[in-house]
Structures are given as C-alpha cells and as structure tokens.
Design goal:
Helix content: 55-70%
Shape: elongated
Largest sheet: 5 strands, mixed
Strand order of the largest sheet: 3-2-1-4-5
Radius of gyration: 29 Å
Oligomer: single chain
Strand content: 5-15%
Low-confidence stretches: none
C-alpha cells in the first residue's frame, strides 16, 4: 500500500492541476468569443469581395494578371501551413500536420526529394514539426498569433503573389484548420494559385444578372481586386485557424479537468483505504499486545 504522505502529496498536486486547467479553460473561452466575433464579422466582406471578383471574371478565359498564369509543367510548389504558437490544444496541430504530410507524400514526393517543394509556416508548432522532419521550410513566422493583425497577413500574401508572378512558384497551396464548432475542426487544404476563372465565376452566386458598365475597364478593376481577394483568403484562413485553436484548447482543458477530477476521486479512495488499513493494523497490534500482557 502506498505511503499516506505520498498519496496526500499527489492529491494536492492533482488539485493544483485542476485549478490550472479550469483557469486555462476560462481564458480560452474568452479568447474564443473574441476570435469568433472577429471571424464572423469578416465573412460578409470576404463573401461580397469573392462575389464581385467572380462576376468580373465571368466569361474570361484569361485575364491580364500574372495570377492566372498556368504553367505547362509545375516545377516548384509552395505550401502555406497555418499552425499555432502554443500547445495544450489536443490534436489541433498534429491532426492537420499529418493530413498535410500525407498529402505531400502522396502527391508531391518527387518535388520534395528534388528540393522543389517549399513550406511557409505560420506559428511555432508548424515550424518545429516540419523542420524536425527535414522539410524545406524557407520562411516561418513564430509568434505570429501573439500580434494577429491584417497588415502582417497582407505582407505575407504580397510576398507569395510576387514570387508566383515572377515564376518562382508555379502552384501555391494553403493548409489550415477550419472552424466548424467548439469541438470540431475541419482540416482544409486548398489551391489558391494560380487563380482559376471558372472557380471565381462560381463564387458569383447572386441572382442579380444586371449588366454593369465598368470604369476604367473590367480587366483593370479585376487586377486590383484579385490581390485583395487572395489576401482575404489567407486572412480568413488565419482567423478560422485562430478560432478553431481556442475552441480546441477549451475542449482539451475541459477534458483535462474532468480527468483530473476522476484521478482525484481515485486517489482519495486509495487514501481512505490505506488509512483504514493502517488504523486496523494499529488496533490489531494494540489488542495483541493487551492479550499478551494478560497472558503473562
């Protein structure tokens, strides 16, 4: 039977853990509400921008922007992976990273072996995971979510766009956790470059088919909107990932609290059993001693 002092020490330690996990759950819940509001407020603008861009691109086979460039052979590929800066959020990071790794091994193993596959990693966890496995992480942004703002996201996408237009990359993919609910995240990988006019046209889901006149002309406006459209795709993915992270952390801390409470109950039961056994042993020794004295 375990020593009573050791069991008491473990119970105290578990109680301290419960207090920590409960506090972390409350903090995550507060951050989740803020992140969710920010994400929801952004969606109407992104949706309307996508709709307008789709309308402008409707019926076009090729626009003047280099963002539509279709390479005859995909020589170099870029993956943008959005993780988190902190842990204690269950399988939030590893589940996404394993999906990305499986996709890379299945479709881009040749590019990786030949050094033609680059990764941009947002968040410390993504950077650490893929560097450890010898992926070619050319740029990373650890601490990205400590100061989450639109300008830094726009700067990253501007760099990606320039490298695509300059033919450094022939295809760009975006991988992130999409927020579905507090306990559900959808691992998402989508191709964002080159831009396909058919996909943009499908974004125009409005029933309004009025013909508009554009000044100065459709191509000029489209070429101004396309960079913003791509930036909003990355910004939306960042907000989705941040919201999903807080939800995952809140759920993980709730599970940890419940598990710690169950462990505390088991320890208290073990403690009471050990204490009862010790008392019974002491009583037996006292009775045996008394009987020995009487016999003498």
């Amino acid at each position: 039977m375990a020593n009573l002092r050791d069991i008491r020490t473990r119970i105290t330690s578990v109680n301290n853990t419960i207090q920590i996990t409960k506090a972390m759950k409350m903090v995550a819940a507060a951050k989740l509400r803020k992140a969710q509001n920010r994400m929801v407020e952004t969606r109407p603008y992104a949706s309307k921008l996508s709709e307008v861009t789709g309308r402008l691109s409707s019926g076009k086979n090729q626009a003047g922007s280099g963002l539509f460039r279709q390479a005859e052979e995909t020589d170099r590929i870029l993956f943008i992976v959005i993780g988190s800066d902190r842990g204690l959020c269950g399988g939030f990071n590893n589940n996404l990273f394993k999906v990305v790794e499986e996709r890379l091994n299945r479709e881009f193993s040749a590019e990786r072996s030949e050094g033609r596959l680059d990764l941009y990693c947002l968040g410390k966890k993504a950077d650490a995971y893929f560097r450890k496995r010898d992926y070619q992480v050319v740029q990373s942004w650890p601490g990205f979510f400590d100061q989450l703002d639109f300008d830094s996201t726009a700067g990253i996408m501007e760099q990606v766009r320039n490298r695509f237009v300059n033919e450094t990359y022939d295809a760009v993919y975006l991988a992130f956790n999409a927020f579905k609910s507090v306990i559900v995240q959808e691992r998402t990988i989508k191709k964002i470059l080159p831009v396909h006019t058919e996909e943009l046209a499908n974004n125009d889901s409005s029933s309004d088919r009025t013909e508009y006149l554009y000044e100065p002309d459709t191509d000029t406006i489209l070429n101004r909107l396309l960079p913003l459209h791509l930036t909003m795709q990355l910004w939306g993915a960042v907000l989705e990932s941040n919201t999903a992270e807080q939800g995952a952390r809140m759920a993980a801390m709730d599970n940890a609290t419940e598990n710690a409470k169950e462990l505390e109950q088991e320890l208290r039961l073990t403690y009471n059993q050990a204490r009862q056994s010790a008392i019974t042993t002491e009583i037996s020794e006292i009775v045996s001693g008394a009987q020995a004295l009487e016999g003498s």
